[in-house]
Specification:
Elements (H helix, E strand, L loop, with lengths): L12 E10 L3 E5 L5 E5 L6 E8 L7 E10 L27 H20 L12 E3 L16 E6 L5 E4 L6 E3 L8 H4 L11 E8 L6 E7 L15 E5 L6 E5 L3 E6 L2 E6 L10 H13 L6 E5 L5 H10 L4 E6 L2 H10 L6 E5 L2 H8 L6 E4 L8 H8 L5 E6 L2 H13 L2 E10 L8 E8 L5
Parallel strand pairs: 3-5, 6-21, 11-12, 16-17, 16-19, 17-18, 19-20
Antiparallel strand pairs: 1-2, 1-4, 2-3, 4-5, 7-8, 7-10, 8-9, 10-11, 12-13, 14-15, 20-22, 21-22
Helix pairs in contact: 1-8, 3-4, 7-8
Length: about 450
C-alpha cells in the first residue's frame, strides 16, 4: 500500500497565477504554500482556479485542471470542440488557445528541452525558434484542421465509441472528433455500437481511397458484422499475442509520399498528418543533400519512406541499408523498394542489427526512433561511423535533446533544426535536426 487515502489532495481547489508552458500539454503554476502544479486547460499569464486531479500531500507535484478562468490570456479562445475541457476528452491539449499561440508554446517547449537536456540555445541548434504549420493548417482562431488520418476510438461498456479522458481508461463518448480527417469521419464509426469491442482504430489513407478499421475485442469478445458508411477493410487484433489478422478486404492501405506509393500493412505505422510524410522527406533530403554513390543508413525505417527517398538520390552506385524491428513493416519495406537493387532491409532492433552488419563507415544516416529516442549506446555507435551528415527525425523534443547531448559527446553538432506543427491542437511537435561533425567549420 502507498499513502493512506486521507493524504490525497484530489478535489482540492487553489487560486493561482499560471506560469510557463511545460512539456506534456500543461502549464506550471505554484500554490501559495509553494506546491508545484501541472495545470491543463490554462494558458501562461492567466489567473485561474484549479482543481487537483492527481497528487497527495507528499507528492513532488500535483496535476490539476483549470476549472474557472478569472483573468484570461489574450491567446484564449472558446474551445471549438464540445468534448474539450476539464474531465472530458484527453486527445487535444490546446483547443482553448489560438493556433499561433499553440505553435509559440510548442516552440517554447522545444527551446526549454534543448537548453535543459542538451545545453543548446536555439542559435546553437541552428533553429530560428519557429514551429511551421502544414500548408492549409493555418486557420483562423476557432477553426480546427481535420488532420488525423488514424484515430483509435476506445469503446465504453455500452458499446459506444469515444476517446479516452486524460491519463485515464475512462471513455468520453463522441459523435464527431473535430481533428479526425474527412476520410475517417465519413466511415461513421461514432454512429454505430461496438458491442464486445475494446478499441476500434479507423485509418484513412492519404495516397489512395483505402479505408481500414482495426478491431480489438474485449477478452472473449466476438467480432461484429462491420457495416460502415464507406467501403472498408477489416482487421482484428488477436487477444492471445497482439498479432493483427485480416478479416476481409485488403490487409494494407496504400499511402503516397515523395512521388512513390507505399504499402502499409496490418495497421502499421505511417505519419498521421496527411502532409507529414512529404514534409519530413523534403526536410531530411534538403538537410542531407545526398550525392550519387553515397552509402546511407535508414534506421527505424518502418515501411521504407526515407530509404526510398535516399535510394532515388544516391543512384545506382549508391547503397541504402534500412533497419526495422517490426516484422510486417520489414515485409512492406522490402515490397515497396523491391525494384531498387541498392536497398537492403534488415529486421531487428537497431542496437542489435547494426553491430552485426560489420559496417564501419557511411556517408549519410537517417534515424526516426520511437518516442523514447535512440539512446546512448546507439548514438555512440552512429557517431563512430563518420557520416558526413545525420538527419534525426523526432516526435519528442525531450528524447531529441537527450540524444543531441550524446551526439555532442560523439563529436557531432546540430547544423540546422526545424520544427513542424504536424499535430495541431495537441502538445506534440515534430522536429528534424541535421547534424554534422563538430570539427567541421570549428
Amino acid at each position: 500500500m502507498q499513502n493512506a487515502p486521507e493524504s490525497s489532495l484530489v478535489g482540492q481547489e487553489y487560486e493561482v497565477e499560471v506560469g510557463p508552458v511545460a512539456h506534456g500539454g500543461h502549464c506550471v503554476a505554484r500554490t501559495q504554500d509553494g506546491r508545484v502544479l501541472f495545470v491543463r486547460h490554462a494558458l501562461p499569464g492567466e489567473k485561474v482556479v484549479v482543481k487537483v486531479t492527481e497528487g497527495e500531500e507528499d507528492s513532488r507535484f500535483l496535476r490539476a485542471d483549470a476549472v474557472q478562468v478569472l483573468e484570461p490570456s489574450k491567446d484564449r479562445v472558446e474551445a471549438p470542440c464540445p468534448y474539450a475541457g476539464p474531465g472530458k476528452c484527453g486527445g487535444c491539449d490546446w483547443q482553448h488557445a489560438k493556433p499561433g499561440a499553440q505553435r509559440r508554446f510548442k516552440g517554447e517547449v522545444v527551446a526549454e528541452q534543448l537548453q535543459r537536456l542538451a545545453g543548446l540555445t536555439p542559435e546553437e541548434a541552428g533553429w530560428d525558434g519557429t514551429v511551421m504549420p502544414a500548408p492549409g493548417d493555418k486557420l483562423p482562431a476557432g477553426e480546427v484542421p481535420a488532420w488525423r488520418t488514424r484515430v483509435q476510438y476506445a469503446v465504453d461498456a455500452d458499446g459506444r465509441a469515444g476517446l479516452r479522458k486524460h491519463r485515464s481508461h475512462e471513455v468520453q463518448p463522441v459523435d464527431h472528433c473535430m481533428i479526425a480527417a474527412p476520410g475517417v469521419s465519413e466511415l461513421g464509426v461514432e454512429k454505430r455500437d461496438w458491442p464486445q469491442m475494446a478499441t476500434v482504430e479507423a485509418i484513412a489513407a492519404t495516397g489512395s481511397n483505402d479505408r481500414q478499421v482495426v478491431l480489438t475485442p474485449r477478452p472473449g469478445g466476438r467480432l461484429p458484422l462491420v457495416e460502415l458508411d464507406k467501403p472498408v477493410s477489416v482487421l482484428r487484433v488477436e487477444e492471445r499475442d497482439g498479432s493483427v489478422h485480416r478479416v476481409h478486404g485488403r490487409a494494407f492501405v496504400r499511402e503516397r509520399a515523395d512521388e512513390r506509393t507505399y504499402r502499409v500493412g496490418m495497421g502499421g505505422f505511417w505519419q498521421v498528418h496527411p502532409q507529414a510524410a512529404d514534409m519530413l522527406v523534403k526536410a531530411v533530403m534538403q538537410g542531407l543533400l545526398p550525392r550519387k554513390g553515397d552509402m546511407a543508413l535508414d534506421l527505424y525505417c518502418g515501411v521504407g519512406l526515407f530509404a526510398g527517398a535516399l535510394a532515388d538520390r544516391v543512384g545506382e552506385k549508391g547503397a541504402v541499408l534500412g533497419i526495422e524491428s517490426g516484422k510486417r513493416a520489414v515485409e512492406d519495406a522490402r515490397h515497396n523498394l523491391q525494384h531498387f537493387d541498392r536497398v537492403r532491409i534488415e529486421q531487428g532492433k537497431v542496437e542489435s542489427v547494426l553491430p552485426r552488419t560489420g559496417i564501419e563507415e557511411v556517408d549519410l544516416i537517417v534515424l526516426d526512433p520511437p518516442r523514447a529516442g535512440a539512446g546512448k549506446q546507439t548514438v555512440n555507435h552512429l557517431a563512430s561511423l563518420g557520416a558526413r551528415r545525420i538527419a534525426y527525425v523526432a516526435c519528442d523534443p525531450a528524447a531529441l535533446a537527450r540524444d543531441l547531448a550524446y551526439f555532442r559527446e560523439g563529436g557531432y553538432k546540430p547544423r540546422t533544426l526545424r520544427a513542424f506543427d504536424l499535430f495541431p491542437m495537441t502538445h506534440h511537435v515534430e522536429c528534424v535536426a541535421i547534424l554534422e561533425p563538430a570539427a567541421k567549420g570549428s
